Amino acid sequence: MTETMVVGVDGTADSLAALGSAANLAEESGASLVVLHVRHDSGLAAGSLEAGAEAAMSEALDQAETMSRERASEVLAGRTAPWRFDVAFGDPATELIAAARNDHAKAIVVGGRSHGVLGGLVVGSVAQKLVRHSPVSVLVVRDGHPHRLEAVGAPSAQ
Description:
Elements: E1 4-8, H1 13-29, E2 32-39, H2 51-76, E3 83-89, H3 92-102, E4 107-111, H4 125-133, E5 137-141
Parallel strand pairs: 1-2, 1-4, 2-3, 4-5
């Protein structure tokens, strides 16, 4: 049985960097990828929107899904790791965890966004939720490059 990794994509550079890193790991380990795009309405209740606004939101979500699918296909073109693209609806962290459970994944991979003045040490809310609640390992990829935190006062590795 092949091991599986779930990768969250939303079409952003951060998520595509995470997908590229996950693809590298999958090729090295023989794992397969479940590329998951979560349609998330940013907390707006669809029932509270006027008909025109609801249609516009649906159109925007459709475009984001299409863009994510196309960009994921571009990142994975020519890769040897088997993969599939899935779509879920709801809270991204919750849906990524559900996908990991359903596919018996060994890890969830997501892009990390930096926030605040701590030099990029604070990750995005989805990554934070995953780190706190995921039953499997979580890899947060920052700008497509591996980063290492040095101990306070320790010289950095060159």
